[in-house]
Structures are given as C-alpha cells and as structure tokens.
Amino acid sequence: MIEKEVIVIGAGLAGSEAAWQVANSGLAVKLVEMRPFKSTPAHHTGECGELVCSNSFGALSSDRAAGLLQKELRFFNSIIVQTADKFSVPAGGALAVDRSKFSTALTEELSNHPLIEIKRFEQLDLPSKENVTILATGPLTSDELANKIRFFTGMNSCHFFDAASPIIYGDTIDKEIVFKASRYDKGDPAYLNCPMNENDYIHFRNELITGEQASLKDFEKETANFFEACLPIEEIARRGVDTMRYGPLKSIGLWNPKWGDLFDRENRLKNRPHAIVQLRMEDLEGKLLNMVGFQTNLKWSEQKRIFRMIPGLEKAEFVRFGVMHRNTFLESPKLLLPTLQFMKRKTLLAAGQITGTEGYAAAAAGGLLAGINASLITMGKNPVTFPDESMIGSLINFISNRNQILSNQKKNKFQPMPASFGLVPELTKRIKDKRLRYKAYQARSTEALDIFKNKLDTCLKKTLTYQNLLG
C-alpha cells in the first residue's frame, strides 16, 4: 500500500516546484535537502531554489522559447515563476531576479505551507518503492546518492562541466567609463556596458587564453566536456580572435550618447567600440552586478588581475569569483517515460537538471509535471503527459523515452537541452517569417493547454493521458 506522503529529494528549483504542486493537491510532502549541513561546489546558502549561475530565467517575450515556457508555467501557477516575477530586476527583455530575495521568499513560502515538511539531512539512498518519490537532486547530486542512482539504473551517469560568472560590487565600477543602455534602446536601459577599443580587446584576449586555470580536481585528467550554452569565457576566446566579439562581447546596438550622434555614419564608425562587456544587476539598487557571459575556470587571483583590465573595472571589487564544477545528468531517454517516471520503478520520478533539461524555467517545468504525477500516482490514478504542442511537453519528450520513439535517436549521444522551438512539432502550415512562426507556436500551445488544463482541473476524479483527454 502506497503511503499518503510524497518524498521529494532536493530543494532546488525542480524540487521546490514539485513539492508545491503536490502540497496544493492536498497531499503531505517531505522535502529533503542536505544544505546547509552539506554543501556543494557551487552553492553558498541553505535556501531553497538557490540560483548558483546566472540570475536570469531567459527572454520574457512569449514569442521566444524561454518566454513561452515561462508563460506556460504561469498558466499552471508555478511557484518558481511567480516568485521570480515578484522579485524581478531590470534586465532588458529578460526575466532576471534578485537572487537573494528570490530564494529567501521561496524558502519562507514552502516552510509556511501546512502540508510541506522540510527535512535537513543528506539522503544516502533511494527510498523504497512503496514510497512515491521525486528525485530532484540536480546536477550536483552528492557522491553517495549518485552512486546509488548508478547502481539502480545500471549505467554510468553522464556529465559536463558548468561554470558561474563573477559578481562585483556596483559602487566599485568607474561610471565615467561604464554607461547604461539596452541593445537597440529596447525597453529601459537595463545593462551597464564597458566599452573596449581594439588594443584593449586584443590584450585582454591574450591574457584570458594564457591565464592560469583552476584545477578541476579529480576530473582534471578527463577531457573537458563543456555545455555549449555555458562555455567559460577563456574557452570562447580560444576559439578565435573575434569569437567573443560575436558572442557575449558584441557591441552591435549599444551606444553611449557621449560619443555623439548615433545616426551620423562617419561619427558612428569612428566611435563605435570594438567590443563591450555587459554587467547585469543582481538587485534593484544595482549594488551587485553580474558579469554577463563571463563563466570562467580561471584561478581567483587571475580573475581579479585579468578582469580589472576591462575599462571601467580597474578598481572592481568582487563579491564572488567565477567557479567551475562538474554537472551530472541521467541518460534520461533510456530511463524515463514522458510522465517522468522511471521505467524500472513507476513510483520513482525524476525532475530538473538531473534529467538533462537546461535552464531555470526548464527545471521548474520538470518539477511541475513530476509534482502533478506524483500526486496522481499517490491517489491511485494514472499520470498525465503534457501536450506535444506545448514547450513543456516538447522539452519532456526530448529528455524522455518519447525522444527515441519520435526521432529514433537511440545511437545519438544524449546532451542537456534548453527550451527551443526546434523541439516543438512543425506547424501544419509553413510560415516563413520567423516572428510570425513563433507567435503561431505560442497560439497553438495556448490552445492545447487550455483544453488540457480544463481536463486536468477535474482529472483528480478521472485521469487519462493527454491523448485520451482529447477523445
């Protein structure tokens, strides 16, 4: 007999979302988190949902993949996105948050829920199959539990190297050099910009690629397998002289009025910077600034020396230096159903980055689905799958066994994936204009989720898969 309590292991974004969804279905939740008694190479607090890399959830506009995923999560009352909205900070067209206020508020909300009990200890083994359990330990799963997962699945975990950007004190930058602007003047000026001339840039690049690297500890003998969406800045620099200029340091669309008339072509060509380093606010007051795109594995002393070569940051003081760590994820297409249940044990579900999704909103999406299905399974009912037309459904299809059914990619190497329109099914009518096509994806998702949610609201009485719900 299944106990009427759901266990959620891990209080990151996925685990927090899952616990919230279960509790709001009327079931008790035991949310297990090892922090602060045992930390990880990347965490600094014991708060739920601590953001260890960027403070950005990606583009806000729903005609962007990340924005559509956020919109879908709002539709299902995601606590992660609701809290992010509440503590957002200016970031141009992106949803970025004050990370400290975000995680503190999330922890308080979960702690105050009468059906959620947060237990602080390290989970050393998988609970028995009689307990409905959600595994949401993230890419920094503790070694002992990771070994138990390997034994349970019968296969070695995949991994890649991830990195976080430095954070500096806002009052230590030179505001005579650094200027505030958003690219193409879209929205309120939300980024601080450090312009570099060609000599500055070339010298900076040379120092980056020759700077002393921090040890990858017991992983240093392995060939580094970086996640392409989060490459260390020095790795980007090694790929070519101009690679950074067409990546995180691109200057196109950014202009300081001090340089004169933007619309005077001769003046624009004369004064346009060779490259620009951007800083994003970590809080509403701008006391803390994140170096955008500056994930790094440089030694801390080297970071201080080299990053102070950036114009305007000559006297910068660092709150946190960049760090690199190894992220672990499952070979999910061989292990998980589109319901996020393990094929081998239907009372065990997985959610978040450990499943191979990438990005904060994607982690919350996994937690949302796992929480809904854990509730249904506990009540003795059938789990659901999200519609293929939605970004949530498409993302879960990619990381689950559905991926193999749809695309027969059994021989391809599985790698983490963020939200992308490349995952959703093609439209029945081809639309050449990209913006119109993305808006059509959004409209189709909304229509499918309206039908799905109307049925889901009553599915605690009668639950079927999405395909049957339409019948």
What are the salient characteristics of this protein?
FAD/NAD(P)-binding domain; 2 domains; Elongation Factor Tu (Ef-tu), domain 3; six-stranded antiparallel beta sheet; five-stranded parallel beta sheet; alpha/beta; globular
In short:
32% of the residues lie in helices and 16% in strands. The chain is an alpha/beta fold and 471 residues long.
Strand order of the largest sheet: 10-11-12-13-9-14
Report the top-level CATH class of the largest domain: Alpha Beta
Number of helices: 14
Radius of gyration: 23 Å
What overall form do the CA principal axes indicate? globular
SSE topology sketch:
Blueprint: E1 5-9, H1 13-23, E2 28-33, E3 56-59, H2 65-75, H3 79-86, E4 88-89, E5 94-97, H4 99-111, E6 116-120, E7 133-135, H5 143-153, E8 158-164, E9 167-169, E10 179-181, E11 191-196, H6 198-210, H7 233-238, H8 265-271, E12 275-281, E13 288-291, H9 300-307, E14 318-320, E15 323-329, E16 348-350, E17 357-358, H10 360-378, H11 391-399, H12 402-407, E18 417-418, H13 434-456, H14 466-470
Parallel strand pairs: 1-2, 1-7, 2-6, 7-16, 17-18
Antiparallel strand pairs: 3-5, 4-5, 8-15, 9-13, 9-14, 10-11, 11-12, 12-13
Helix pairs in contact: 1-10, 2-10
